[in-house]
Structure prediction request, 439 residues.
Amino acid sequence: MSRRAKRPARNSKLNRGAEKSLTMASEAMAVLRDYLDPATARARELSTRYLAPIATVISPLGFVLLGTAVLLWILGASFGWQEALLGAFMATVLLLASVGFVLGRNDFSVDLDLHRTRVAVGDRAVGAMQVANKASRSSAPVMMELPVGHGAAQFRIPRLEPQQTHEDLFTIPTQRRQVLDVGPVRSVRQDPFAILRRQVKWTESYELFIHPRTTALDGSSAGFIRDLEGMPTSDLSNSDVSFHALREYQSGDDRRHIHWKSTARTGELMVRQFEETRRSHLALSLSTNLDEYAEAHAEEDFELAISVAASIGQQAVAEQRKLAILTQQGPVRTGSGRQMMDGLTRIEAATGQRENLVDVVRHTAGTVPGASVIFFLTGTRTSAKSLREAWMHVPAGVRAIAIRCETGIEPSRSNIGELTVLSLGKLEELGVMLRKAVA
Prediction:
């Protein structure tokens, strides 16, 4: 019994010893961490300050050459290989020679000027780059790079005398709708073998908006974009534009609406009653799901839909109408014509999206309850069933027009219930088709 009683005591002593050891180890780790954290942070700061600039100068080929030189020096010194020593010497000479090409300092004043930061597809985007030598001595020839999107343009700057200026003009291609990052201008020094490459930034970057193509509707929107008198409804109001009838005065009515001639004739106060009007408010539901556009040229058809939205939007802005544009990616800012075009330029389409045209129209109807006209902009792979389902979400009394875009097809007009469906193959046909829609 006594031996059995001693065993729990021994186990408890062992547990206390283990706990004490773990506590001491954790305290030691905490002390070590407190000592190493500042050292690690200092080492990271030094590497960022001194090693990072070097790493940006050395090209991948330079790193390979440097590693090869170190390896050959080690092998040659360890095994006495003359060939390895000769190769290490040549690699070292090549590295040292390339350093001379990247050394030096320029005192330039560089000015990057884009004539316009917003152009349409097909227009010329022209810019100029001016380089002035601000130093008191002549500058050596240098290469300037101008990043444009994913590419870069190169300009050879000749030797400049003190205070001399050199100007280069350039044109940026605008074949497709996009937002391009232009700049910053940077000077580049590198050796003939591109082992070392040193860049110096001289300007900031700019955003170049290449807006979608548009077409003028020339007043073709008249007929379905309501004027200021609005579209009469069956709801009655005490104050509006469209006169409806006379009724007896009730407590709280605005005395400005008393019809005094009828009051004198009947002997009772009579007031005017009006019909509520719906102010013109255009809503565009634009589908960015490429699965709803023709499979052969879905991106071209989507660009056509973007151009249709931009053309209708510009007409609405010109006529000072309220405008709302919604896609699967959310609403497009329409506070001004520039904001609208910039927003449409940033839109990107994709395949395999969960939401389709029906979801966009449902969201549009809920977000813009006061719309007088809703446009459905989609591709020809959107079925009649989907169009009908989307139309079911449109409130009663709101005009709905669906425009199905496919490059090259013959324009046509059809109806699905009260929904007008237009098929469009060219942007230039938009005005004619809209006039047919209200005929």
Notes: The CA atoms of residues 19 and 144 lie 67 Å apart.
